[in-house]
Amino acid sequence: xxxxxxxxxxxxxxxxxxxxxxRCDCGKAARxxxxxxxxxxxxxxxxTLERAYYYCAPCGAGFCPxxxxxxxxxxxxxxxxxxxxxxxxxxVSFEEGHELLHALGGVDVPTKHVERAAESLGREIAxxxxxxxxxxxxxxxxxxxxxxxxDGTGVPMRALELLGRNGKQPDGSAKTREVKLCTVWSAExxxxxxxxxxxxxxxxYSAAIESAASADTDEQPSAFAQRVVREATRRAFDRAPRRxxxxxxxxxxxxxxxxxxxxxxxxxxxxxxxxxxxxxSKSIFGATSDLAKAWARQRHDELDVGDxxxxxxxxRIHAGTDTEARKCVEYVTTNRTRMRYAAFRAQGLCTSTGxxxxxxxxAIGTRxxxxxxxxxxAGADAIIALRCCKLSGRFEDFWERRSAAKAAVA
Length: 410
What we know:
Helices cover 47% and strands 18% of the residues. The chain has helices spanning 2-12, 65-69, 79-91, 94-105, 111-131, 223-234, 251-260, 270-285, 290-304, 308-319, 323-335, 341-346, 354-368, 377-391, 395-409, and strands spanning 21-23, 29-42, 45-56, 61-63, 145-156, 176-185, 189-190, 196-197, 204-208, 242-247, 265-268. The longest helix has 21 residues, at 111-131. It starts with a helix and ends with a helix.
């Protein structure tokens, strides 16, 4: 009933007929061409509105002034419904989003329309993320220690997105593309054992399918490096008294951190380092050997107390005959300053990338890696941008900017 009342009131108002001609966006005169109906989904239900229609012959464009005024110019969804679609599209599958909109809001948006609208909104958010890089006000306090973590996780892709790409399948082909994720958080809280615990509400995410490598001849940072710098700027990472970069040990993480965050403390994830040593023990003594477990446990203890030299001595004994031991010698040697776990622990610092790994699951995996999902790069990037925006607590800020921009255009 409410929808019909609003519909009738709007259709009775013909003030959107602004005369025989109005100025088109191209600067030429568009001529009035009658009134045309269009059905819009609103939070009150579907409404069919009659609108004055103008056609610009010079540029071949047609438009309705009322659509502009109501901020419905580029969509058949009202701003309220589009906001709802954005929320469900960020959190659940498009089919589930369709069902939730109908069950909770009484709004019937077909699944395909949910997909298109959510991805369109995600592309807007991705563009907004690239251009709106504002640090918090100078008088806003920053956590004493800020952590920045980086990692990558594969997302299943459609076959056309994988042509010519090498992968980990038995035939050398790929089934996924890698999403690279940047996470920033603080951890001033402590658990019963005194281990740092992430602060509730402090975690933010930014991610996309993009490279962390720059061409040798390219003066511009890689796409992912630029993303990391933007996120660090938004979080005032440079203003934190202590800054820490945590990673699993991949060289691209440390190359990027050294170049763009040179003053940050670098820490290799302690559990990844221990996993490397466990893999070596299995390679030397056998996967089920008690000797392998004892050897790995001793190396783990040496890492915990900061005795990296003892770890290296034990590895070098086997480096001449075992490939995994030889690789691990190089790994530990390269990262030895990032494995000073006793010193880091004494400073009250996190030594685990658990927040980053959880981010890969929560921000990416939960939404994009469900059974039967296969993405295009554009579609995945749009939904990832939408989801990161929502999980980082930035959706309201984005919507305010979007509404202000639409109002200014109208």
